[in-house]
Amino acid sequence: MSESNKLFHSVRIISACTFLSRILGLARDMICASIFGTSMVWDAFTVAFKIPNLFRRLFGEGALSAAFIPVFTENIEKRGKAEALVFVNVIATVLIIILGGIVLLGESSFFVIPRIFQVQEKWQLVFKLLIIMFPYVFFICIVAFMAAVLNTLHHFFMPALAPVVMNVCWISGAVLAPYTGKTPDKMIYAIALSTFFSGLIQVIIHIPILRKKEIYYRFVPRFSHPGLKLVLTRMAPIVFGLGIVQVNVLLDSLIAVGFSSPQGETSLFNFLGNTFHFPMKAGAASVLYYSDRLIQFPLGVFGIAMATAVFPLFSTHAVREDWNKFSTAFNNALKFILLIGIPASVAIIMLRVPIVDLLYRRNKFDAESAYRTSRVILFYAVGIWAYCGLHVLIRAFYSVKDTVTPVKVGAACVGLNLILNLSLIWVLQEGGLALSTAISAIVQIAILTIILQKRLCIKIENEVFISLQKTVVASVVMAGACWGTLKMFPDLSGGSLYVKGLRLFVPMFAACAAFAGTSVLLKSKEFLHLVRLLLRKHNSLQGRVSSNLLFVSSALYCSAVL
Q: For the residues 27-34, what does the mean pLDDT come to?
């Protein structure tokens, strides 16, 4: 099989598994919403799950893979497989020791803290769930390391299947939850246990593949190994950069729980001798979780896809110091971000109610939960174009070997986000947390753009503003068509699945048609180019790969956002 054929085969495997994982993830959230709604119990679970997830994102995924794979590849190519296997075992040994220490420290803390300090019931449940789920950190980071080894050896199926296994376990736990207890605070332990077992199962399914590749684990405590030092050195700035983002996400959830009134209890609390009303009701963290999941679905497809595609261009032009072409690539990326991001924001804002009704509103997820969730989606959606653009801008800095500036700006925006959080929750409740996230992202992208322009003498061309005007006009027409079509369908949110589907998909298609028609009439170059890319028949394999990637991304994007 040729190299390009192997690439196409790998892309298909990863795309198929990712798509399946996304669908199962959506099903998982729908089932949990039906069982737990927006309750204090689900608030506790979302916070408890975010803490091990924080470690997974810091150590298990991007940072470890980015630092390990180049060094492992170099060992295979220059020193042979035997020496490469020693290097793998050195990294595995250190990783097991570090993760084991983190889990033991975490488990001890979660057991002791509620027994030393007087904590509210909602926090007691968080600690109990953490005792069950925190070992997931150990398993999932080991899985990420196994995936990095297998990806380097050109095996992609099992690493891509791992998230599918996690979602299947979670769904199984949700289905079995009603049989494990009669109240939500009892049923939630089934979800927590399923999370723990999903990590263990993901480790187990990778072992046979590693053995097939003749990768066997041996305890090799060679802490002076040069490859280990190199990996740790490369990981440090990546971990720090990722940590800023993940801590920001965690802070939102902690504020949502800490500043919400306990379910069924008084809405007052004392602070410095004064009495205040809680700014939010129980369920705030749950509402943020469900809203964020819907927003992140399309962003994971388009934002990262755009950044991945433009990163090699940025890097090539930066190495050649061809700043004119770098500027052209940057302007083109900016135009496409605005072309997709602005109508996506408008579409989600207009269709947020039928989306939530169709996907979530049933059983415990009642009318109030649906209203609160759709309201938070409104505020999150304001910044969709900025969320997408940040991926591109940060990679533009990486391409000129500047990893410090995005971290500094990101750290400043975490402070801004915290200030806005603690200010806006008193006016907008949990919506204030979402709006703070959007404002921080917009400020961050503005600052990074200004710095990039000054540093590289990049100019935002007039074509960008012309494209922006056309996109805004088409989006306004789209909003009008969507609003008019929605008026034809009364709010039958308590109706059948068929009725809910009609109320979402008919306005969705009207909105798509209005946007497409207006863009064609305005002769939007970016929209017409996007259509040509989707419809063009490529003869080369490289073209077919690009077409398939664009088609899958567009299909996922449209189905998720609209």
A: 92
